[in-house]
Amino acid sequence: MGRGPVMADQAWTRMPLVALDLEGTGSQDRDQEAILEIALVRLVDGSPDMATAYDTLVNPGRPVPHRPWISPGLNDHTLKDAPRPEQIDHALVTRLEGRYLVGHNIGVDDRLLRLRHPQVAPAGLIDTLRLARSLEVPGPKGLGALLDRFELRDRVNESVPTGRPHRALWDAVAAALLLRELATQGGITSWSKLHTVAGARPPPEQGQETLF
């Protein structure tokens, strides 16, 4: 039997998954959008592995605009001593090469990641927003609303005690925990099923809704 069928039939929890979240200056900057913070959380047996989590601020090399959706913790003062994008290239490549990125509306993060770090080559995308819609979860589908619906917010806070919503590490852990919860609710155990209902490809270059 070839490697393809074996991979497709195995449990999704055995797949190389990494929860990703980026905080940026905003999609209205188009090709000038900058990453301000990035977090990567590897999933081990379907759960976030905090011991190996990677989280860093990023100095964009230009002033950070004052916009209501940019966290107050991400500003010129806090970012001035952070690494520049080229200084984290190696860390991103080694942690993401050949892995599947997990996130809520992950196409938005993937677009910005590829824009600023085109050498990173993930294997594909798993979108918890798409998964929630496929399972027809009632109510709003934003990340915060889903965390509250499944009573996951306290678990995120326990994993990231110094974090907060709309910061990269907090949101990455939230997406990782949400993935497991949604898969459990939907009775999804195999990789083939998860990839069918939640797999995504990079979106076309057009406006997308921002959901939290």
Residue share in β-strands: 15-25%
> Got a strand count?
7
Q: Describe the largest sheet.
A: 7 strands, mixed
Low-confidence stretches: 1-6, 203-212
Radius of gyration: 17 Å
Helix count from the secondary structure assignment: 9
Distance between the first and last residues' Cα: 42 Å
The oligomeric state of the chains shown is single chain
Average of per-residue pLDDT values: 91
Give the SSE string: HEEEEHHEHEHHHHHE
Helical content class:
25-40%
Outline, from the CA principal axes?
A: globular
Pairing-aware structural class of the strands and helices?
A: alpha/beta
SSE topology:
Blueprint: H1 3-9, E1 17-24, E2 35-44, E3 47-48, E4 54-57, H2 76-79, H3 89-96, E5 100-103, H4 106-116, E6 124-127, H5 128-134, H6 143-149, H7 153-159, H8 168-185, H9 191-198, E7 199-200
Helix pairs in contact: 7-8
